[in-house]
Design brief:
single chain; alpha/beta; eight-stranded mixed beta sheet; 14 strands; globular
């Protein structure tokens, strides 16, 4: 069996690697010559285990810019990530263009195509008028855990034109390579289920942040409350119960925006989802509120440890760290991140090769991403390197010491 992946962004690279690691021949197709050339050597996205899997499956993978290579496949996935704008709205044109180009090449063939890209409800039904052998599969990857989740899925959610027809045998064969319960439904139900999953996650994140904030003001301990929630089977041991800086990364925000747009015509009450958006903005600005209370010296040096929106990814999409860099207009900013790179918009920011160079001489230290390597920092080194005594550490990465007793103003969630 040979499986094609058209679209070599994060989605295509991860799923093609998982498929190749399962012993299946893969063809990775993308119109970008520079990207395909690079992918012949190594993946272009950062995910735990992906580099190693890529190297081990080199003989299982063909990389090409020629869409006609899809005709040699038994099954083809449209696997381009859908970008979002600054308001969380999907920019699906890239996927629509890719689909049109693929359908022209596969015209008259009997090769099934699976749309893996997240699209607005109604999209797959419309595209199926151009290609009959089309199904939709919900991807539930998580940045920093993507390869593991692709290789060991919790379940498979698939949308088809007519549920009575079932799945295409080739698609079933591929799904059975990654054993999990199958949920087969019509296109619209599958498309909306992806949005529903992220809305429930947003509810958990928003509730956690709000109650944790109230706990601080009341003198209660959120750490004491968390075990009581995890032991409730209606909430569960895997719930999102770590306070954070709102929603980021783009995926959940996209689905909030999509729901609000779809509900805008009166089809549903948007007030709950609007509350999630407001809650996210409030908690996202927590670091900015802390900075507003400080009296930093003129031309203060501020060190940021971490600019990725979460650990184990290089993505800075909607990262709160970007807002902090934008706000510190009168400061010298130094940042360090194990994988993420400062974008062109923040060219005035100095990115250092190690965390020590960022912290040296800093008046204020802000830990924006809870990377594991920051948790292992010897705090005595911080004492030696910093000039100031203010540490903003929302996730309590720098723990294990009484900072106030050491003379530091340490602020955390």
């Amino acid at each position: 069996m040979r499986v094609g992946f058209v679209g070599a962004s994060h989605l295509g690279q991860v799923y093609s690697a998982a498929t190749a690691a399962a012993g299946i021949e893969v063809t990775l197709i993308d119109p970008s010559e520079s990207l395909i050339s690079a992918l012949r050597e190594a993946p272009s996205v950062a995910e735990p285990g992906l580099d190693d899997a890529w190297m081990k499956t080199r003989d299982k993978r063909t990389c090409s810019t020629d869409f006609h290579a899809s005709r040699d496949c038994d099954l083809v996935f449209l696997s381009m990530d859908v970008p979002t704008d600054d308001h969380g709205e999907s920019r699906s044109e890239v996927v629509e263009t890719l689909a049109s180009d693929l359908f022209v090449v596969l015209s008259g063939s009997t090769i099934p195509v699976v749309l893996l890209s997240q699209v607005t409800p109604g999209t797959t039904r419309r595209l199926s008028s151009k290609y009959k052998l089309l199904s939709y599969q919900v991807e539930t990857l998580v940045f920093g855990q993507a390869l593991s989740r692709a290789s060991h899925p919790e379940r498979h959610i698939v949308g088809v034109a007519d549920v009575t027809d079932g799945l295409h045998p080739r698609h079933t064969e591929w799904l059975d390579t990654f054993p999990a319960a199958k949920h087969v439904m019509n296109y619209e139900s599958a498309e909306l289920s992806k949005i529903a999953i992220n809305l429930f996650l947003a509810a958990s994140v928003s509730t956690t942040n709000s109650v944790a904030e109230l706990a601080r003001s009341l003198g209660a301990s959120w750490d004491d409350i968390v075990p009581t929630l995890r032991s409730d089977r209606r909430i569960g041991p895997h719930a999102y119960l770590a306070p954070g800086l709102g929603l980021s990364g783009g995926n959940i925000e996209r689905d909030l925006a999509t729901f609000l747009r779809l509900a805008g015509g009166g089809q549903a009450d948007p007030s709950v989802i609007q509350a999630f958006v407001r809650s996210s903005k409030h908690h996202r600005d927590w670091v900015l509120r802390q900075l507003a209370t400080l009296k930093l010296p003129s031309r203060a040096v501020v060190a940021l440890l971490g600019i990725a929106y979460k650990p184990d990814t290089a993505s800075t999409k909607n990262s709160p760290a970007l807002d902090v860099m934008d706000a510190l207009v009168d400061c010298e900013i130094r940042v360090h991140d194990p994988h993420a790179v400062v974008d062109e918009r923040h060219s005035r920011v100095q990115q250092t090769e190690n965390w020590g160079d960022a912290v040296t001489g800093a008046d204020c230290l802000i830990v924006m991403t809870p990377w594991a390597e920051y948790a292992s920092i010897n705090v005595e080194e911080i004492f030696k390197l910093m000039r100031g005594t203010t540490i903003i550490d929302p996730y309590r990465v720098l723990s294990g010491i009484d900072w106030r007793a050491a003379g530091y103003d340490h602020r955390s969630l």
